[in-house]
């Protein structure tokens, strides 16, 4: 029998026992809905975690330090045979030229003294790269991000803002003054016979900054650096301030007091999976590189296992629903025994009869799958709504904890059809094997 | 036995035995019969004589326990299930005592059903259905369901359904058994008309007078055996 005729007969048969077939289809849809709801929660939580982590800027970033510095931190000391490669402007350009690298910026942080409303506060300032604007740390910030890469503007971390004022939000739009230590090269000593300066002096400097925003945390604070910045500056501005930093002393000892090397650099890659290759290239350049990719992989593994178990629990309902299909189709065979006999007498082959029952099972599976995905999606929306209400009650921003991607829609409907067809195997084979003479005798 | 194209149906010591508990029922026992193309044969016999079982064997609905049964030269006993389905679809048409129409389908849809099973094209199907329905004079009842038709109309519908695939052999199992006398007459006249077009008809009946009036040959069965074969009249 042709596919179209099979489908027409199957639909006609399904409409004959509308209530029973509808109930069976609803059973399948409940199974699919439970599967979709479970998986959407798993995928949604995974997406949420991945998104939050990605927005920290930790998983697409590589933190680079001079090899000797890293060794010194570990207490290994300096190597007498290999002179450490300097993490200077040249190295920065070299890294920026690597494939898939979108940005290389130094980690600039330095001690400052804030003067505001007649009081002084000692804290740490940090330069913020323009790309940090997309970081989760700036979600829900008061005010706005820097207007330009070298604007005389600052964003305050909330704890610092609270120290400065009882109403921290009111600080946005006001100005404050910061004192910092500027490194100034000394003029060359004529008695040494060298044309370059032998050292530098550190002098206090003062600068007025316009407060444009207040943020909860510093982006990526503490990972690539030793401290957390509480007063944030545009990175370019922070670089032009020529502030005195720890490695200035090291540069002085290496007889290159004004060569200006960086303590560390952050290398951002356009795609987290490419972090490893870039990291290896940087290591080959003679630097120590570190990324959180391994942590990301572990997280992904945890969520994969989580999704697997949610999927298994969700599928149980669908497996139970498939028994409903078996029951419905076996009942249909009993009811339509004579009809099967007539079909066979008129020339239907075993394959035709088997196909007819398969199409009926598949139709219930497809319809149940579509309905189930819709119900599962609605359950997900309900969970999101409930979560939003709960979070709003606690003054937290709204988030989506469920997600129904297209692959899940396609997979759930396919799974539903496959389970339904599997459930139809026994009834379809039984119907196909019916002896036409016996079937025609059946009243 | 050799194949013979002039032979519509030929059985060679065909038997169909059933095991019912400890009893072996010999529904058809060692029957050899030859039915030539274009014959109108009546299989007569009392209930349980084996005539319907023999008809089922000819239709390929049942398989013989032993012996051979040929339809248009092909041994049905050796055919695979799919081949038997094709035989039922293309070579024979069957009419039952109980009409066996599908109740949820209209007259037209019931007649169209064998064409769907035979995978005949949609356009040709329409033409063949009209032709078959016209042949049994039911064009005014196309959209009626079986429950809206009289017994005679239902049997004529079943007849149209049996003819729609243009089979060479028509097998009728008590076609007038559920009909009153005058309606039964109508059906018999239809069968007679059909036979005159050259179609072979094998009709199971227990009504001897009607069989004698319309059939050209009468075979009488008893206890699974042929007890008399009237030959061609």
Report on the structure:
The complex is a heterodimer of chains A (443) and B (233). Chain A is of the alpha+beta class. Helix content of chain A is 51%, strand content 18%. Chain A folds into two domains: 3-54 and 299-441, no CATH class; 60-292, no CATH class. Chain A contains 13 helices and eleven strands. In chain A, the strands form two sheets. In chain A, strands 3-4-9-6-8-7 form a six-stranded mixed β-barrel. The model of chain A has no long low-confidence stretch (mean pLDDT 82). With 233 residues, chain B is an alpha/beta fold. Chain B has a single domain (37-61, 78-229), classed as P-loop containing nucleotide triphosphate hydrolases (Rossmann fold, 3-Layer(aba) Sandwich). In chain B, 34% of the residues lie in helices and 29% in strands. Chain B has helices at 51-59, 81-90, 107-117, 122-135, 151-163, 181-196, 208-214, and strands at residues 7-20, 23-36, 40-45, 66-71, 74-75, 92-95, 169-173, 200-205, 217-222, 225-229. In chain B, strands 6-7-8-3-9-10 form a six-stranded mixed sheet, with helices on both faces. In chain B, a hairpin with a 2-residue loop joins strand 9 (217-222) and strand 10 (225-229). In chain B, helix 5 (151-163) packs parallel to helix 6 (181-196). The longest helix of chain B has 16 residues, at 181-196. The chains are: A alpha+beta (443), B alpha/beta (233).
């Amino acid at each position: 029998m042709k596919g179209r005729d099979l489908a027409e007969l199957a639909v006609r048969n399904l409409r004959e026992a509308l209530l029973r077939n509808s109930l069976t289809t609803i059973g399948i849809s409940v199974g699919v809905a439970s599967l979709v709801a479970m998986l959407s929660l798993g995928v949604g939580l995974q997406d949420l975690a991945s998104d939050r982590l990605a927005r920290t800027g930790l998983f697409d970033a590589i933190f680079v330090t001079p090899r000797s510095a890293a060794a010194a931190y570990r207490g290994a000391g300096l190597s007498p045979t290999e002179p450490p490669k300097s993490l200077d402007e040249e190295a920065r350009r070299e890294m920026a030229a690597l494939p898939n690298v979108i940005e290389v910026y130094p980690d600039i942080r330095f001690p400052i003294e804030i003067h505001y409303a007649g009081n002084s506060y000692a804290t740490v300032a940090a330069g913020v790269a323009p790309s940090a604007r997309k970081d989760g740390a700036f979600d829900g910030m008061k005010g706005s991000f820097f207007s330009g890469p070298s604007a005389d503007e600052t964003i305050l971390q909330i704890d610092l803002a609270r120290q400065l004022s009882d109403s921290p939000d009111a600080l946005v739009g006001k100005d404050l003054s910061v004192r910092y230590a500027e490194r100034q090269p000394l003029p060359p000593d004529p008695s040494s016979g060298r044309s370059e300066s032998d050292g530098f002096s550190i002098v206090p400097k003062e600068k007025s900054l316009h407060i444009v925003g207040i943020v909860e945390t510093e982006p990526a604070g503490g990972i690539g650096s030793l401290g957390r910045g509480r007063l944030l500056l545009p990175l370019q501005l922070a670089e032009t301030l020529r502030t005195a930093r720890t490695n200035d002393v090291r540069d002085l000892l290496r007889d290159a007091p004004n060569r200006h090397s960086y303590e560390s650099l952050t290398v951002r890659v356009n795609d987290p999976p490419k972090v490893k290759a870039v990291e290896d290239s940087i290591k080959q350049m003679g630097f120590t590189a570190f990324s959180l990719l391994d942590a990301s992989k572990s997280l992904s593994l945890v969520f994969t296992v989580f999704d697997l178990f949610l999927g298994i629990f969700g599928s149980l309902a669908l497996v139970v629903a498939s028994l409903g299909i078996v029951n419905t189709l076996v009942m249909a065979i009993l009811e339509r025994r004579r009809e099967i006999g007539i079909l066979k007498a008129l020339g239907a082959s075993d394959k035709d009869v088997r196909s007819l029952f398969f199409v009926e099972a598949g139709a219930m599976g497809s319809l149940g799958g579509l309905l189930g995905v819709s119900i599962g999606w609605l359950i997900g929306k309900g969970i999101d709504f409930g979560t939003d209400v709960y979070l709003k009650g606690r003054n937290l921003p709204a988030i989506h904890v469920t997600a129904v991607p297209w692959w899940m829609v396609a997979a759930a409907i396919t799974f539903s059809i496959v389970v339904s067809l599997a459930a139809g195997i026994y009834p379809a084979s039984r119907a196909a094997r019916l002896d036409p003479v016996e079937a025609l005798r059946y009243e | 036995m050799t194949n013979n194209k002039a032979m519509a149906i030929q059985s060679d010591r065909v038997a169909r035995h059933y095991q019912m508990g400890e009893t072996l029922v010999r529904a058809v026992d060692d029957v050899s019969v030859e039915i030539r193309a274009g014959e109108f044969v009546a299989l007569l016999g009392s209930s349980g004589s084996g005539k319907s079982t023999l008809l089922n064997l000819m239709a390929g609905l049942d398989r013989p326990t032993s012996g051979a049964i040929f339809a248009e030269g092909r041994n049905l006993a050796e055919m695979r299930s799919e081949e038997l389905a094709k035989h039922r679809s293309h070579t024979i048409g069957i009419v039952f005592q109980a009409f066996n129409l599908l109740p949820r389908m209209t007259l037209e849809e019931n007649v169209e059903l064998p064409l769907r099973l035979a995978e005949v094209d949609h356009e040709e199907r329409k033409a063949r259905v009209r032709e078959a329905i016209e042949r049994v004079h039911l064009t005014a009842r196309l959209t009626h369901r079986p429950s809206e038709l009289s017994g005679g109309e239902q049997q004529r519908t079943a007849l149209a359904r049996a003819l729609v695939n243009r089979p060479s052999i028509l097998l009728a199992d008590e076609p007038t058994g559920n009909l009153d006398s005058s309606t039964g007459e109508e059906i018999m006249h239809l069968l007679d008309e059909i036979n005159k077009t050259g179609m072979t008809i094998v009709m199971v009946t227990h009504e001897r007078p009607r069989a004698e009036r319309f059939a050209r040959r009468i075979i009488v069965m008893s206890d699974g055996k042929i007890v008399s074969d009237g030959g061609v009249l």
